[in-house]
Amino acid sequence: MLPVFKDDPHLCSHESRVMHRINAFRGWKEEFRRNEGGIDQFAEGYNTFGFQRHELEHKWTFTEWLPEARKAFLIGDFNNWENTHPLQPGEFGRWSIDLPDKKDGKWAVPHRSQFRLRIQTECGTVERVPAWTKLARQNLDVNVLNGVMWEPPPSARYRMRHARPHRPENLKIYEAHLGIAGREERTHSYLEFKEILPRIKRLGYNALQIMAVAEHASHSSFGYEVTNFFAPCSRFGTPEELKELVDTAHAYGLTVLMDLAHSHCSSNQIDGIAAMDGTDNCYTRESWPPGS
Asked: How far does the chain reach from its first CA to its final CA, in angstroms?
């Protein structure tokens, strides 16, 4: 008998149900250990999905989770948005493509290239912004978001210069929406928010909680209705500029917290991750959004 049943005898009448759930968890935990190297490694999907560089092999690999897809193609301005780069299906619903460097050493998909996925599903062909893109930017010609290959050359990468502050014993948090934190009636940038940091420090705060960091559908959602969880909001600037903001906050001794709720996933299908593989139960479920 588990100790919990001794601590709370009222649970004994539900022992079979509790043990059923515990055994199910143990089974999945073993599956993760056997196939993914453990739950911790499985949780680090950013090291597996999206664009991954293999320097010794002079190539990139792109991987996406599309369990119910029939076919999938990586399309973008690098191939004139044609179906010339098919992904190959693998285990556990993963689709991948190797992208060898060109003969002159240039990447097959250059830095700042815009791209999407074209997916053939049971219900027809759809286009999606990859779930693991590092940046998504609006294409003003068609008024939708595209993924952006974001991998600056070493000379253009922001290098963190200041150590992360020690965790304070007592938090005094300054919360702000980066886009509307300025004085003017417009969208402000990551770098413009740096000007507010001295005042935050002077007022005695030791932590900064920033909202609307992940790419989201519209300003009206106040940063929720997230469309890409690994892409900093392009309305405020680039990923490198976000790094500079965080690094500057660290220089002032401010702990930086990012407001991110994974349950606040956008139900959008054109620019969000809902129905990524054409089904209603890929990243989201049929009764979406919550409460519907």
From this structure: 40
Calpha distance 77→69 (Å, rounded): 23
pLDDT number for residue 290: 43
Phi, psi dihedrals of residue 35, rounded to the nearest 5°: -105, -25
| Residue range(s) in the chain whose domain bears CATH number 2.60.40.10 | 49-154
CATH 3.30.750.90 residue ranges for the chain: 156-258
Tell me how far apart the alpha carbons of residues 257 and 113 are, in angstroms, rounded to a whole number: 30
- Strands of the chain, DSSP E: 50-54, 59-65, 71-76, 88-89, 94-100, 114-121, 124-128, 136-139, 144-148, 173-177, 207-211, 214-216, 226-232, 255-258
The answer to whether the predicted template modeling score (pTM) of the entire model surpasses 0.85 is: yes
Topology annotation, domain 49-154: Immunoglobulin-like (2.60.40)
**Number of residues in the chain:** 292
- What is the rounded CA–CA span in Å between residue 274 and residue 281? 8
pLDDT of 287 higher than 70? no
What fold is seen in the domain 156-258?
Transcription Regulator spoIIAA (3.30.750)
The answer to whether residue 286 scores a pLDDT higher than 80 is no
Q: Measured between alpha carbons, how far is 150 from 138 in angstroms, rounded to an integer?
A: 15
Cα Rg for the chain, rounded, in angstroms?
A: 22
Task: Summarize pLDDT for 137-156 with one digit per residue, the tens.
Answer: 987 777 788 999 999 999 99
